[in-house]
Amino acid sequence: MGLRDVKMGAIALFGMAIFSFGIVGCGGGGVDVGATPPAESDRVAIDAANSDAVAATAYQALDVGDIAGGLNPLGKSFKILSDEEPKLKSILAATISLKDMAVDPYADFCDSGTISMSGTQTSATMTFNNCVLGNSSLNGSMILTINSTGTEGTLTFANFTTTMNGEIIASYESLSYIYKFNSSMTEITSMTLAINGYILDGDKRMDFINYKLDMSMSDNVYTISINGYVKENSLNAWIGITTVEAIKIDDSLGNYNYCPIAGKITIGGNGSSMTMTYNNDGSVDVSIDGGVPVHHGTCEWFR
Fold first, then answer.
1. Phi first, then psi: what are they for 263, rounded to 5°?
2. Mean pLDDT, to the nearest integer, of 276-287?
3. What are the extents of the domains in the chain?
4. Which residues contact 69 (CB under 8 A, 6 or more apart)?
5. Which residues pair with 193 in a beta bridge?
6. Cα–Cα dist 207/64, whole Å
7. Any idea what the Cα angle at residue 117 is, between residues 23 and 159, rounded to 5°?
8. What pLDDT score does 107 carry?
9. Is it the case that residue 202 has pLDDT exceeding 60?
10. Closest Cα partner for 77 from 141, 138, 134?
11. Which pLDDT score is estimated for 254?
């Protein structure tokens, strides 16, 4: 899935979360990305030999906005497990009012371990304590708040891990996802995703420190900024990403034209830097340490 799937993925995710809690509360909550940044000595020294890998890592960091699948933490905790475990589908489809929590509907949900719920009409918390579902398990807490119409809300995870076949496939000290729908709940108009943690997809691992993605949608155009630090295991070192000019993706161009049509990011390494400039024809210019840009005809180069 590509960047164009952000909208539908986010709608699907929050459909699951809201139905899981079945509550109406008040929106709110902030994004805390206050972890200690990686030392410069732990960042990659960017040069011509590794520039393609660095650019690919930066592009994958942008693709984390695809909430429903691919390399993303929310998807790893819910989409994969819901595909694998019919029992998890039942909890995501449940509708229960907070007033009914005295009768624990999830007492026998886990094969072993527990799920507990608590909250008020303004927010609710679901806590997983080594909840085993077949070959998978969940640990940690999930907090959801929404406004009276369901159009705004925040989903927060704390010290949350997802394990499959004995291997942790998603672990985050903190993750916050803030969203806003239009009044008819058919379009997400803005979202913010902040992550401290890591995710694993097969042999590919991506770590995040103070990662933050902000996105808004208007007139079929996604406007996106990403900032923070990411590490992909093929580089085995961190890069720092800063959005200089907002990235824009035109949703009206069709299913296969998801390359950005505008935007500029800088990537900071160990005593080195890279600039990626997205052009209106879907091409990308890449410059190392302010040198002559190398032109790539499509963002497909980095996928």
1. 125, 160
2. 93
3. 3-302
4. 1, 5, 9, 75, 79
5. 177, 213
6. 11
7. 110
8. 60
9. yes
10. 138
11. 58
Rounded Cα distance, 272 and 290, in Å: 10
* Ranges 18-22, 136-140, 151-155, 261-265, most confident: 261-265
Residue with tokens 């899981």: 20
- 153/146 Cα distance (integer angstroms): 4
Total residues found in the chain within this entry: 303
- Of 11-25, 117-131, 169-183, 260-274, give the range with the top mean pLDDT: 260-274
- SS3 readout for 258-281: CCCCEEEEEEECCCCEEEEEECCC
Question: Mean of the pLDDT values across residues 99-107?
Answer: 49
Tell me which of 14 and 51 has the higher pLDDT: 51
SS (H, E, C) 37-81: CCCHHHECCCCCCCHHHHHHHHHHHHHCCCCCCCCCHHHHHHHHH
| Axis-axis angle for helices 86-93, 6-21 (nearest 10) | 80
